Amino acid sequence: MSQHVGWESSAQAWIDSNGDEGDRSRRYVLDPAVLRRLKTRAFTTALDVGCGEGRFCRVMQSLGIKTVGIDPTKALLGVARERDPDGDYRCESAENLSFSDASFELVISYLSLIDIPDFRAAIAEMARVLKPGGLLLVVNLTDFQTAGMSKGWRLSWRGALKEFAIDNYSIEKPALVEWSGIKVENWHRPLDAYMQTYLGAGLRLNHYEHPMPSDENAQFSAKYRRVPWFNLMEWAKPETAGDML
Asked: Which of 32, 70, 27 is nearest to 52 (CA)?
């Protein structure tokens, strides 16, 4: 299954599911955590890698950040341009960015690395286009979640969630996932594969967390507290080559 074809055919279902403000996990789990990190300093330029329908570009613009969004899915980019006619949205792959070195103060990958087959090339490209002193902000599914995609939660004989099954953790592999009419491939990689790639790109880890829900609904919150669902990493590009030592 081609990743781009999967997203092209699922684009309308994604748009219908997320609306203008994103789904519940974005509104109540991820956005608050990401916005806290964005407000730690004044960014003026940002690249959104895997911008989809442009929702988070518009969020960053509301903070005064000039954004460029890239995505390989033309159907999603069409909606981004409709909703933000003055925005800059380009059809590109993360593995081969068209921008010059050191073009952006901030690069953000908001749940897009799981969709990218060659994540090593993508991370290298994101580091390349960062200005020295700039930040790469990554939201991703945890390796616990992606390792359990093929099995997930097991139920007790009473029908309650009993345990979350993880299998073949060390093997990088795609899995077909479906929800709300969306049918795409998501990739599992063990955490060390990601960490070694960030470090190999010369980046330094500033911040790591598992975002937790701000919603008071107990059933909704339990889903994210029982098994870490997402991680949020902030990686810095050193000011000089000497800072990397």
From this structure: 70
Q: Please report the DSSP string for 36-60 in residue order.
A: HHHTTS---EEEEET-TTSHHHHHH
Pure H helices in 88-209: 119-129, 143-147, 191-200
**The pair of three-digit structure tokens given for residue 70, joined into one six-digit string:** 């890239």
AA identity, residue 11: A
Give how far the C-alpha of residue 219 lies from the chain's centroid of Cα atoms, to the nearest Å: 24
Q: For residue 239, give the nearest of 134, 118, 138, 94 by alpha carbon.
A: 134
Tokens of 5: 């074809």
Q: Is the dihedral angle over the CA atoms 18, 19, 24, 30 positive or is it negative?
A: positive
Sole residue written with tokens 């491939």: 185
H helices present in 87-210, as ranges: 119-129, 143-147, 191-200
Contact indicator for 8, 73 with CB cutoff of 8 Å? yes
Query: What amino acid is encoded at 185 in this protein?
Result: E
| pLDDT tens track for 135-150 | 999 999 999 888 887 6
- pLDDT one-digit tens code per residue, 17-52: 888 888 889 999 999 999 999 999 999 999 999 999
**Inter-residue long-range contacts of 6-11, CB under 8 Å, 24+ positions, other chains counted:** 6/183, 6/184, 6/185, 7/72, 7/73, 7/75, 7/76, 7/115, 7/184, 8/73, 8/74, 8/75, 9/183, 10/181, 10/182, 10/183, 10/184, 11/73, 11/75, 11/76, 11/79
